Amino acid sequence: MSASRPTILDVASRAGVSKSLVSLALSGSPKVSEKSRLRIERAAQDLGYRLNAAARSLAIQKSRTLGVLVLDLHNPVFAEILDGVQTEVRQHGFSTMLVSGGEDPTLEHRQINTLQEFQIEGLILISHRLSADVLKAVAREIPTVTVTRDDIPISRMDMVCNDDISGARLAVDHLASLGHERIVCLSGGDNPVSHARARGYSEGMEDHALAHYSTIVSGGLTDSAGYRAAQEALQGDPTALFVVNDIAAMGAIAAVEEAGLSVPEDISVIGYDGIRLAGLRSINLTTVAQPLAELGRLAATRMLERLDQPQRPAQHDQVASRVVVRGTTGPPPAHPRSSAS
Amino acid sequence: MSASRPTILDVASRAGVSKSLVSLALSGSPKVSEKSRLRIERAAQDLGYRLNAAARSLAIQKSRTLGVLVLDLHNPVFAEILDGVQTEVRQHGFSTMLVSGGEDPTLEHRQINTLQEFQIEGLILISHRLSADVLKAVAREIPTVTVTRDDIPISRMDMVCNDDISGARLAVDHLASLGHERIVCLSGGDNPVSHARARGYSEGMEDHALAHYSTIVSGGLTDSAGYRAAQEALQGDPTALFVVNDIAAMGAIAAVEEAGLSVPEDISVIGYDGIRLAGLRSINLTTVAQPLAELGRLAATRMLERLDQPQRPAQHDQVASRVVVRGTTGPPPAHPRSSAS
DNA sequence: CCCCTTCTTTGGAACGTTCCAACAAGTATG
DNA sequence: CATACTTGTTGGAACGTTCCAAAGAAGGGG
Known about the structure:
12 helices; homodimer
């Protein structure tokens, strides 16, 4: 009864032609007569024929599919980058296979393996936690583009990032221009992105001759890490906080408010990333916004280029971020709260 | 030079056995001698052999892969459901292919087509915008489970949902037990989920003999829709708002605060969904929490069961939600703000 | 009427796997 | 000591495509 999926052969016999001609017709070859093409298309339609991607991939030795690994599907940053990847890739007739390793290097590696079994032609890593060795091994086997991380340069592996150092400096510029001096940086722990942003902060403070106020509190990338770091930072009586990312900044704001201070009247807070969420009315966070979708689009472009010419040297793109001023930053309070000089 | 990927044949010749034995050994058959198994594993290791999923899928006529469509990767609800799906599915040796249609029915349909080309064995829809006709056509072709929506019953298609009606009643119970009477429902517009929650609200109001206070304001599922709906609702001088989902609740809070009122002292707000975000310190939203990961896990289980016995009747699971009390609900103000009786 | 070109169409091989029937080599059974 | 059974192993077919060389058909020129 339920003769499983119709194949190209079923279409062929229904249209009264050979399987080869069906293949030709369905892939849009110009050598097929109008008459046959029509008959074949009709037959395919009637039978509900659908290409078998596995068979095709086996035959042409390509899968027309890219693998995408995102660090963590819960962090909106990655969804927004992914958007850019998807739209670009789709336009070029590629499919994507999406996996997430949930910040676990071992799982990430396993997931990449699975992707490879599906014969993906390229791999886009939207942030990752792989060790340099593993990453090198992966990149040797398959064209790879990393987004958001550029600390492990590998030959013929492209990297697409925002410039974290300049971005962090912009944050300091913004706060300094409002009149802030005691600006504390809540860093995100031991990872390359946090390091770069902390460094940009330090440079920015120097530029504004505020180096002697420069203070970095080590925290993390999560809400609660931002909360704790802010509590610590408040001891130092700052007027502004530059927080390593938007999520942590939201935690920091909670700490400030719990301490009986208000944002931005007593303390200004600026985040980093520019997730859509930060724009929600009840959050309304000033932040250094990365062009997230653009980051994704660019990564996809680089990948497609590399598939064309696999041997070209590695490209390293850095896109500019900009400050989006919302409701969590303002001028410092006219009268200092404490007796600090 | 670069002899492409090693195949099972390369492994066979290196281990000095036949390709069949390699296939047997690598799939863990017990009929392979210890000696051969070891030699084969070594050879595979040395060559960096990796299974070709396309070839395998072609040979066994199965892909060991499930397709997953999520409504929108930006809404954290779906990422959290997805977690549950992934962990369960992975344990059973299946891979998943994840796509998102961005709330666009046409794109969703296209994406499902792509999934089908990859010979997925089953399809899990984590919310969708498909029309009944399209959904029916899809479900006829391939085992399908819908999560979050149960308004289109189709034979042999399983559905996994939370009970929106009971959940909404719980929200009313919570507010009523705090002493609230003028409770307004901010609904989410014209979709099945919003309708069910509004209905639960009405029933709950009746249970507490508050039916005469029952007011439903039509809004939407987004932050700004919640904001606008709250503005409208405030005209009626309520003491509490039940908002259709967490994201819209966040918008509603912003509207309340902008009106010079505070949450929860003047007005209590309760959301629905229980996204992780709602627990962030700076948000701290009281909400009706669905067991999101559990929803996903259950959907995966139903799918795996159905693959075992394709003909069994459709299952309809409803899991219970519960109120998570946080900082946005409290007793109503002792003295009414306005001159309303 | 035959040959040459051009336009369509075709069968067969290939892709990398799994499965099956069959076979070789031991090992226990009568 | 032949028979049967067990344990390992094998080659060939199959899966649904694409690609290639080659065959047919149709048309034009001599």
